[in-house]
Amino acid sequence: MNIIFLGSPGSGKGTQAKRIKDHYNILHISTGDLLREEVKQQTKQGKLADSYMSKGELIPDEVILGMLSEKLKSLKEGYILDGFPRTLQQAKSLYDILQTIDQEIDYVVYLDIALEEVKARLVARRVCNVCGEEYNLETKKPEKENVCNKCGGELIHRSDDYPEKIQTRLDSYINATAPIISYYKEQKKLITINAQQSFEMVTQDIIKNISI
Ligand code: AP5
Question: 25: CA distance to ligand 1 center in Å?
């Protein structure tokens, strides 16, 4: 079973992908997390990615496809794709990649939310610099200010979670990513979920709508 989680920055793709991954015990592939790890390791690809990510811009399609195509071809188990595809070109290339191994996408879970709501979520997000655990100053506060409950690591404010960068990310979403919604709707793969509910309600709605 191969599932795409689609939605604007801050719609809850990462949060829900982790919950659904745990529920069904399937693989979670987040392009954002893969890229941030490359940036942390200061690899050549990481340095290139950082020059786009720190401005809130999308990384060129050929870089993303270069990073993912062989990985996807080699996987023997089902997965959730979180943050990919993000352009029509990426969606069409994903289709071609999966065709070569006789596979397809089964569901596209579209997390639908007002863009004003995501701005508030993103400015309040904090992430542990050590273990990656996520917090939110409005909805999931750490017990001790700036300290991770789990590992004691320092909590950081993602460099693209500042208002100006958030706006650039939302503009990219509107211009480059939103057109994918109708692409998958036409293929009858789209499941629209109201992402403006509680964490648990969103998870329950997703589970109700997919059958694995
Ligand atoms: P990526 O890491 O994928 O960032 P994003 O898409 O902007 O997504 P976010 O992680 O910000 O949001 P999310 O939807 O996962 O929400 P989350 O669950 O975290 O990509 C980062 C960058 O990498 C891109 O800008 C681009 O440069 C590059 N990149 C990645 N993939 C690429 C690709 N395919 N092509 C080109 N470039 C690419 O939740 C956000 C906050 O909201 C959290 O604080 C959370 O606690 C809170 N929240 C979630 N759900 C709820 C709820 N139901 N109620 C209240 N609060 C909630």
Answer: 21
pLDDT band per the 50, 70, 90 thresholds, residue 12:
very high
Nearest-angstrom CA–CA distance, 22 and 25: 5
pLDDT band at 211 (very low <50, low <70, confident <90, very high): confident
Tell me the pLDDT tens digit for each residue of 90-140.
999 999 999 999 999 999 999 999 999 999 999 999 999 999 999 999 999
Question: Is the pTM here over 0.90, yes or no?
Answer: yes
> 207 and 26 in contact (C-beta within 8 Å)?
no
Q: What CA–CA distance (Å, rounded) separates 209 from 212?
A: 10
Ligand 1 nearest atom to the CA of residue 126, by list position: 44
DSSP secondary structure string, the chain? Answer: -EEEEEESTTSSHHHHHHHHHHHHT-EEEEHHHHHHHHHHTT-HHHHHHHHHHTTTPPPPHHHHHHHHHHHHHH--S-EEEES---SHHHHHHHHHHHHHTT----EEEEEE--HHHHHHHHHTEEEETTT--EEETTTB--SBTTB-TTT-PBEE--TT-SHHHHHHHHHHIIIIITHHHHHHHHTT-EEEEETTS-HHHHHHHHHHH---
From ligand 1's centre to the CA of 143, what distance in Å? 23
